[in-house]
Amino acid sequence: xxxxxxxxxxxxxxxxxxxxxxxxxxxxxxxxxxxxxxxxxxxxxxxxxxxxxxxxxxxxxxxxxxxxxxxxxxxxxxxxxxxxxxxxxxxxxxxxxxxxxxxxxxxxxxxxxxxxxxxxxxxxxxxxxxxxxxxxxxxxxxxxxxxxxxxxxxxxxxxxxxxxxxxxxxxxxxxxxxxxxxxxxxxxxxxxxxxxxxxxxxxxxxxxxxxxxxxxxxxxxxxxxxxxxxxxxxxxxxxxxxxxxxxxxxxxxxxxxxxxxxxxxxxxxxxxxxxxxxxxxxxxxxxxxxxxxxxxxxxxxxxxxxxxxxxxxxxxxxxxxxxxxxxxxxxxxxxxxxxxxxxxxxxxxxxxxxxxxxxxxxxxxxxxxxxxxxxxxxxxxxxxxxxxxxxxxxxxxxxxxxxxxxxxxxxxxxxxxxxxxxxxxxxxxxxxxxxxxxxxxxxxxxxxxxxxxxxxxxxxxxxxxxxxxxxxxxxxxxxxxxxxxxxxxxxxxxxxxxxxxxxxxxxxxxxxxxxxxxxxxxxxxxxxxxxxxxxxxx
Length: 538
Fold this sequence. Notes:
This protein is an alpha+beta fold. It contains 10 helices and 26 strands.
């Protein structure tokens, strides 16, 4: 593809790289019904053939019936879009597509050219008269624009196929792997030509070119299968593409060899790239939103994601789960209708409490932390990087299902809020959990003096804190403990009693609960949080 983008004066034809010389009028394209079916993707770790890390793991999906074009879109079929002003009509292009089109000043495919009134096609090593029955080669943005135009012309929901739908095409057409001792039954593997060829030359069942000729753009941004693991020897191959800006291409092209010809191969490129790729369109309703594939790279967010949902270190149990378990045991036979996780951060305790409570509200001052919990509640998966040392990172994927918490997703709601100034709707709770919060508030006294209004009579308030008072978080005059008064020590527990007695009784504690926060592979914070549980008086 890079050679193809060089000026012709820098290259010359070679007999060992002879292109196809067959061409003719573009065949008519028609829709073929593809029945509904299931797909099960992902290679086993002991597969005999080489694979990139993104090919391993598990993915299963039920694919509804749809219709697919019999042929890849040919140069002749794409010409209708060009002639109809397709490149000049903003309505056919999304924002990303318009930005590329305007930057590239494109008004036709990049490998098309004109010789007076005649169209030409740039191949790898030469230019030829336009072969109208060959597949058009465009980027994903152009393919999407064509589909929008085609849909408007036909009144049908025309779009690119998803990765799952491409596998249904392969199964429907009975496509297999390239034989080891015979030429490929497709324009693949360099077995036939050093270029594309007519779109009606290689039938596969009632379709053509499900594999081979040109790569086929899909609507699916590449994402990791369940159980994805980064390969330690090429950790920068796939993970940089998990950004929802790299779409999968399937099927291989005339020049694809080795792993690229395997049905399991998963290659993805930015949507404005060129990769000997064309497309086939389908008629189907919009695809489901794919699971977010982005890896959170913000150091603080990643540390908290690991703190809440990651590994246990040095034998110290997960802190959020330990607090939730303490709270649940303390509730005993009390009603467990609604719980409030105040200062919820990434939300692990919220999900843990939802195992027994009918409804859990997670509130944090940081919208960024709330985003982690909301993503888990919506999609059940969280991905992030952890600093190992310097610029070296490792990759983590955490799923609520693996923690036995997937069934809690519908019972948890996350909100941004200020614990010292909560809206009136955040009331009527049977439990309030305030973990590592009290020494991070700008006015802990204000919070403590009003928290009883949020709790039902007989409800419990669990406060956990290492009491690390810092003026950068809480003005010195607002500290409720950790100082001397009249020469006597005033502890935070003293302050809690001073503000809570009258509306609460101390039901349990204090007890110390440890936690460990991983900063790097070789640096950890080991802290003790003091826990007290208070019962609201009737």
